[in-house]
């Protein structure tokens, strides 16, 4: 259940920050009359995301009669979820510095067009997170049919994200979003590795891939599946005591290189520094702005610093 809670927390916080940026911009621009359109777009995005999640589940449980077809459908959705997770964490790592400015620019254009454009802007900003959440949740919660635990964990993660977003917007909370997205991103990579492993297993059960009975190892006597810690590892990262060879290759082949790429230090480009003139030139050091490590916290609300949501939306890597 921790995996689905993490999915809800991570995706929910990204969506909450996006909405906070839009609301803060409208409030500061004295355009509160457009807030109903923003909330309408957000509500529509949430409704369609829930509908998408239900449609995936309905397709798997009701429309597909043969077990082989269901296994193949689950395998394809698992691979798609891994692609979305990988793209999402690397996109957030790259775009975090500029997302606030881009959203404000797009909202300015939407305000010039009209109410529908504002609602559409909010809808598009949230729907991506919602569809990703639905797909990833379905893939991560496979095998838990009839168990409401994963769904409750997802809702809990989203509720936590909304609470954090409200506190950030109100400048009542300081949080290093750089470290938050780094740690959650690393954990989500391990979750995605487990989802990929599950997808490979489904491909094997559907007869698309061979080796269903070729085990890489069997440590059932050491890692008893009935114990709580074995259930925790299986639920979080799909680490099982008797995986097949292809499952093991998929898990390691994804987790190791993707983690190394994600956690490697970012290349910093030294900021240009204007050469000082006059007697003070000898006393001014010539270090670039990038030499100083920064962390992201929520600043106090004010006319110059912006809202806490705006500050929180631009995490910088230390």
In short:
The protein is mostly helical and 318 residues long.
Tell me what the structure shows:
It is a single chain. The chain has 318 residues and is an all-alpha fold. The chain has one domain (2-266, 295-301, 308-312). Helix content is 66%, strand content 0%. It is built from ten helices and no strands. The chain has helices at 2-28, 35-63, 67-95, 99-113, 115-140, 149-169, 177-205, 228-237, 245-263, 308-312. The longest helix is centred in the N-terminal third of the chain and has 29 residues, at 35-63. The chain is elongated, with a radius of gyration of 23 Å.
* Average pLDDT, all residues: 78
What would the principal axes of the Cα set say about the shape? elongated
What is the number of helices? 10
Rg on CA atoms, Å: 23 Å
> How much strand?
under 5%
Structural class, please?
A: mainly alpha
> Poorly predicted ranges (pLDDT <50, ≥5 residues)?
277-318
**Euclidean distance between termini CA atoms:** 30 Å
Order of helices and strands: HHHHHHHHHH
Quickly list its features.
single chain, 318 residues, mainly alpha, 10 helices, 66% helix
Write the layout of secondary structure elements.
Layout lengths: L1 H27 L6 H29 L3 H29 L3 H15 L1 H26 L8 H21 L7 H29 L22 H10 L7 H19 L44 H5 L6
